[in-house]
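User: structure tokens for this one?
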Amino acid sequence: MAKNTTNPEKRSGATRRPPPRARRDWSRFDRWLDDLVSWSVVTALLVGGLAVLVTLVW
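Assistant:
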């Protein structure tokens, strides 16, 4: 294969890669899932704490 001597800036021999596909933005889902897990943990702690109090009082 002959070298490209007319335009030294033009690259030859490099594999052309297709442009990256538009990826789904998971950050919104990730934030929503973090909030869901946080609320679930807080709810579980409250229910557990109330169960302990009810058990000790009665």
